[in-house]
Amino acid sequence: EEVTESDDEDNLSSVLHQRAKMPWRACGKYLSAAGILLLPLLLLSQLLKHTVMVAIDYCLALWTEHAISIKIEPETKNCSQCMEFDHSPYSKVFSVLCCLGIVLCLVTSIAVEWTGLKVTKKLHSSLLNKIILAPMRFFETTPLGSILNRFSADCNTIDQHIPATLECLSRSTLLCVSALAVISYVTPMFLIALLPLAIMCYFIQKYFRVASRDLQQLDDSTQLPLLSHFSETVEGLTTIRAFRYEAKFRQKLLEYTDSNNIASLFLTAANRWLEEYIGACVVLIAAVTSITSCLYNKITSGLVGLGLTYALMVSNYLNWMVRNLADMEIQLGAVKRINGLLKTEAENYEGLL
């Protein structure tokens, strides 16, 4: 019995270790299927888009700061001189950056969808060739439903869900990095607290990612019986009324609803905890460093406002980044399962004379 318990503990620890690991091989398989030309285009467009977005915010902060500084100048200047601020240079630069940002957003969306289409076509073609050339013992030992799921559900996940999740993950990651970069540029003292904050965020997301993924799967698994019971109740409503089983089916529907609400409540609470905890730390550190720098280094109010605005948005960016990372782990399971079938050895058609 002691040996059995120790084996169970080892198996449980190995399962938990596997759950905490990212499926890097499946991710590499997906990115390698995109090609050597499309993947750099996707990365470059994302970087340029977020660089332009940061430039737009910085230009707006400078525009606001200069416009306010003209109005609050000493009374040595008359009112006509106070109203002579020229907005045209800032408006032209702001308009050009906005147009460039719109174009880059379009290019990024096209690159993401193109990547997903190319990866799906390549994996589907490779999988079809492997299945057609597979030996007969493969079809005798593998259920037909499993093979059909690889071509239907998994290919649908790779085609529709992974590109959108990849775009959201890259966007939230780059927004988080750009926000930290802007805060560090405005208040260099923030770099002192950035390292322990990054270490803390790493360990928090390491444990949160597993819990978020499990809660998401629990939410999905408890939603399916609820929808099935509701549809069955609606279809058999005449029979239920004939046997006077309305109270029984109503009670069953409430039980399924409570189970689904419990999972959804825990998932929402976990997401809010991550957002509020990390966000409060970032806002506190950024506010203290900004006020300290403003008192001693005479930083303009526009840049301080820009840094605090990005600090308030870091919590939302981190929350979406971790949630998209958990979704990506679940969706990469489709790539992992298809990659497992791609390792099937083909039938040997070399006959003997």
UniProtKB/TrEMBL annotation:
Protein name: ABCC8 protein
Transmembrane segments: 30-48, 93-112, 179-205, 277-296, 303-322
Signal peptide residue numbers: none
PANTHER family tied to this protein: ATP-BINDING CASSETTE SUB-FAMILY C, ATP-BINDING CASSETTE SUB-FAMILY C MEMBER 8
Superkingdom, taxonomy of origin: Eukaryota
Source species: Hypocryptadius cinnamomeus
Pfam families xref list: ABC_membrane
Lineage, opening ranks: Eukaryota, Metazoa, Chordata, Craniata, Vertebrata
Domain ABC transmembrane type-1, first and last residues per copy: 41-329
Gene Ontology cellular-component annotations: membrane
A molecular-function term among this protein's GO annotations: ABC-type transporter activity
